[in-house]
Each structure stands twice: as C-alpha cells, then as structure tokens.
Amino acid sequence: MSLYSPLDMSALVKDFEAYLRDERMRSPSTIKRYLSIVTDFAAFMTSEPGYEVLDLDRVEKNHLLEFLRREAGASAEPSRAIWNLRLASLRSFYDFLFKREVVSVNPAHKIDRLKVNPKEPVPLSLDEFLALVDAMETAGGTYRARNVAIAHVLFHCALRVAELVSLEVHQADLSNHVFPDVPTKGAKWLSVPFNDLVASVLERYLSDRPQLARGEASALFLSDRGKRLSIRAVQEMLTTYGLKARIGRTVTPHLLRHSSATELVELGTSMRTVQAHCGHASITTTERYVHVKDGARRKAIDALGRRVTRVAAERASRKIRAKSA
C-alpha cells in the first residue's frame, strides 16, 4: 500500500517537481500548473473525514473523473482545455509514481482527452514577416545573423521547429540550395529545397557561426553555450521579436509554417505542391493525393523568395520617401 499523510505528500510533490524539471524538461510555467493541480487533487482525496491519509495505489478512474468534473458544478461541463490540462498533470504525476514504484498502474490513462478544436492561426502578411526580420536585424549582437536565418528558413522552407533544430551544419548545401535528409514525422527523411534568399542569410550566419561554436559542434543552429539550439529557445526567440515588431499576435514556428503555405497559395501554387512542400503529417494522405514533380516545388519556393525580396525593396523605398517628405 502507498499511504501518504499530508506531510508525506508535500515531500512527494517536491520530488515530482524535480522529476518534471530535470527528467521531463518541462517549462517553469507548466511545472507550476501541474504542481497546483496535483496539490488540489491530494486535498480533494483527503477532504472527507476518515480519509486524511491518501492511498495512492487505490485511486481509481472514478476518483479521477470526480476530481476532473468538480469545478464544473452540477449543470455545466468543464472547459475542454482545462479538463485536458488537469488530466495531463494527473497522467504525469502517476507516470512519476509508477516509475518510482509507488503505484502499480496509472489510472489516468483510462481517461480520454477531450477533443479541442483549435482556432485557425491568422498567418503573417509579408509586411509582418519583414517587420519581424527588421526587429531581428536592428537588435544587433552575436545572434542577429542566426535569428534572421532561423526566421527565413522557417518561413521559406515551412519546416516544423523540431526539424529546424535537428539540422546539422553539413546539411546546409549552399551549392544545390537544399537541406538533404531532414528527419520528419513518420520516421521519414525529406530533402528540403530553399531559394536564393535563404541561401544568402545562411551564408551570412555561417560566417558568424564560429563565434558560437564550441569544439566539434555539429548542429547548424547553436545556443550561446555552443550547443544545439532547443525547441523552446526558438519559440521564445520568435515570441520576443514578434513583440518588438508589434505584431498583434504571438509569433510561433507553426505560424511561420502556416504563413509560408498561405503565401504559396497566394502565388497560385497548387495545393498538392504546398502539401509536398510542408511535408504532410499523414504519409498515407500524402501518397494518396500528392504526386508533385521536384521542378514544380522548386519553381514555387523560388517565386516566394523573389516576392519577399521585391516587397522588402518596396518597404525600404517607402521608408526613404517618408523620411525625405
């Protein structure tokens, strides 16, 4: 039996906090939310007289369901997002208990997440994308060229952030304008072409990269410690510069990916070519609907590079005229 008094639970929750931080690499905000939910759960389970000591191994699905429904009241359904967050925290807590051999089963895995229909992200306009790049350019510092290169690669190549951070320096083939053998969803490997504009920002970054590299660092995009840049670091960087650029919504790697697809469609690119360019999440769906020649994809992304270059020149011309007026 796994009996825990409130005092024992406090120590167990501290161990759970260390597990989330050191083993699961969760963000501070996620850890704070999970700990709050687990503490509420322990209080809920020990709130009845005679149950001041919690037997974690005897917690069943119905106990968890009662806790998850508690905040909804008698006549309302809980928010699906809140339900999923609370369930995720309980699953993580019982995974932790299972790995520590405190319990023999995770009852939270018997409960399904609720389907949430996310809001469709509003893609960046080209003007907003260029404002983002401008914010990175004016920031200065060692990481300017790196950050600009990341923004352009995400936008022009429509990479997922995990694919971006997986890139090795030797994969930046500037001669053929391609990232070969990029690992992607479904245990697949893709060759990702890029245009002249991406090649130019990569070339500039690669000339600065030795300032960041430590030893034999193989990753293309490096952190200030000379290590492979993390997904979270890329996300936070884009959010920070999105705020500096005064873009009225959070800028994320996924938003740049979505914006790339939208711009390609605006150029008249076929949906099948866009699906191939983005690396459709379902390989079965991709094979069923997408049969695109490499030449069509290359033509589309080259056109996107020329369009961004043209709009950038128009913006610069407008700024010069505004200053001279």
Explain what the structure shows.
The model is unreliable at 283-293 (pLDDT under 50). Strand 3 and strand 4 (188-193) form a beta hairpin. With 325 residues, the protein is mainly alpha-helical. The protein has two domains: 3-110, DNA polymerase, domain 1 (Orthogonal Bundle), CATH 1.10.150; 126-324, Intergrase catalytic core (hpI Integrase, Chain A, Orthogonal Bundle), CATH 1.10.443.10. 57% of the residues lie in helices and 5% in strands.
Give a short summary of the structure.
The chain has helices at 6-23, 28-45, 61-69, 80-99, 126-139, 144-157, 161-166, 196-208, 231-244, 253-266, 271-278, 283-289, 294-324; strands at 3-4, 54-55, 178-184, 188-193. The chain is mainly alpha-helical and 325 residues long.
Instruction: Give the class from helix and strand content and strand pairing.
Output: mainly alpha
Low-confidence stretches: 283-293
The CATH architecture of the largest domain: Orthogonal Bundle
Helicity level, as a percent range?
Answer: 55-70%
CATH topology of the largest domain: hpI Integrase, Chain A
Largest sheet: 2 strands, antiparallel
Tally of helical segments: 13
Average pLDDT confidence is 83
By oligomeric state, this entry counts as single chain
Rg over alpha carbons = 25 Å
